[in-house]
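Researcher: Next sequence.
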Amino acid sequence: MDPITILGIVAGTLTTASFLPQVIKAYRSKHTKDVSLFMFILLFVGLCLWLAYGFIKADLPIILANIISIFFVSAMLILKARHG
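Model: Next structure:
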């Protein structure tokens, strides 16, 4: 793997992992009143567009980071629907 791909994977891992604490907190507390639904909807749409871009460019770091991010954001949206 070349250094640019490694850089992309590390950057994608860190930005994707940034969602995890919020998802865990919302799951444990069952409280999402203060979480912005509109922000997560916009984020979900943006991530889907980034994923499409990643597939068009055949860019593995973009594809992987956005698939995982979409999973976490979807979890937040589900938690928001149930507990928000």
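Model: The chain is about 85% helix and 0% strand. The chain has one domain: 3-83.
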